[in-house]
Amino acid sequence: MTNQTRAYVFAIITVLFWSTVATAFKFTLRYLDIFQLLFYACLTSALTLLIVIAVKGHLSRLIAVFKQHWKITVIAGGLNPCLYYMVLFEAYDRLPAQVAQPINYTWAITLAFMSIIFLKQKILLADIVAAFICYAGVVVIATQGNFAAFASSDLIGVGLALFSTIVWASYWILNVRDPREPLTGMCLNFMVALPVVTLVCQVYSGFRIPLTGLAGAVYVGLFEMSLAFLCWSVALRLSENTARVSNLIFLAPFLSLVFINRILGEAILPTTYIGLIFIVCGLLYQQWSHARTSG
């Protein structure tokens, strides 16, 4: 098996992981509140990443890296997983999965505009056009095509879903200047976040939960927060051209709708497909325009 083939395998595995997480979020939130889900998912992810680092024989690096880069570790851990998933879980708790999931996919557009401010990158006309296309899709999904009923939709939920894209984009902008090795940095982020989410869970909720809820939280911790990250990193490392595997990620939101329908029982509205097509087309157009400009 060639490296490129292996890259496709790991990329497809990642896409399958990410395709299920919207369903996992919504399913688990039937049994847990957002604080319990955040705590048990973060605990699972932290332990998973710690085990991977131990197997690689790099445990001794963690303390040294934390001492050297504790500031960026605390900030990054505060953004992801603490703030990002708290906001995202609340959005999913308020909105149907078929609404929250596509909106969250617009984070790449948010990242492009925030990069102009914080990384001094130039804005392209394509970025503006792509943003218009993507957010038109968001409006279609949020209103279900009935624009007169926009005020009656859960604007707080939609706002939280959009705010989650700002938090996630902020995290990735911070990553641009992060000197830590990605796996070590990710593990440290979860390690420093764990005491915070533990305290938040203790204050606002509690730790006694049903086994079904625990299983869902462990699933989220494994397949959204840790293993997906590891598989995607391997896919990008093995690929001869990152664009070849990166485009596979656009399959995830459409596959996700299948799981949302089959497992959660949500009837997928035609406007969801229309809005999602707008969002994906906007992202693809942005990606194509930047590739053409840099090439």
How would you portray this structure in words?
The longest helix has 28 residues, at 211-238. This protein starts with a helix and ends with a helix. The chain is globular and about 55 Å long. It is 81% helix and 0% strand. It has 295 residues and is an all-alpha fold. It contains 13 helices and no strands.
* Beta-strand content estimate: under 5%
Overall geometry comes to: globular
Distance between the termini: 30 Å
Mean pLDDT: 91
Low-confidence stretches: none
Number of strands: 0
* Number of discrete domains: 1
Major sheet description: none
Structural Rg: 19 Å
Helix count, per DSSP? 13
SS class: mainly alpha
- Specify the oligomeric state: single chain
Q: What pattern of helices and strands is seen along the backbone?
A: HHHHHHHHHHHHH
**What is the helical fraction, as a range of percent?**
over 70%
